Description:
Layout lengths: L3 E4 L5 E4 L8 E4 L6 E2 L9 E7 L5 E8 L4 E3 L6 E3 L13 E8 L9 E6 L20
Antiparallel strand pairs: 1-2, 2-3, 3-4, 5-6, 6-9, 7-8, 9-10
Amino acid sequence: MSPELVAHPDGGYLLLVTGLGQDRAYRSNDGVSFTPDPGMKIPMGSDYSLLQRPDGSWLLYYVTFDMPPMEPSQPGEPGQPVQPAQPMDPKTMKKKVMVSESSNLSSFPEGVPTGIQQDEPGMAWGVPDTWVDPDGS
């Protein structure tokens, strides 16, 4: 859902897709046939939107959901979801928009909140998108 396609500065195309697996970045030379790019790391999220700054660096905007509370399975062990194996339900979780930065469109670290988020769980907005205004902002 909501794929993001950009022409890669090194040639070909980069396609980012929403998914629960590791394959969320794909490359193509012709814009028709795509293969996973396991070397490109992007944060877990959905509705990816890329923006190239005038200096050539890239911003990746994406949506995350507040996850259910975590409970440790044993004292001192990492937490597990309170209700494991339950699908995410946008009606019961809050969305927020995150942003991550890359200098060369090769990998993106975990992002930081933009301040755009829901106050209460429920349906929020459609797919966010980014663009550069004619004045460069």
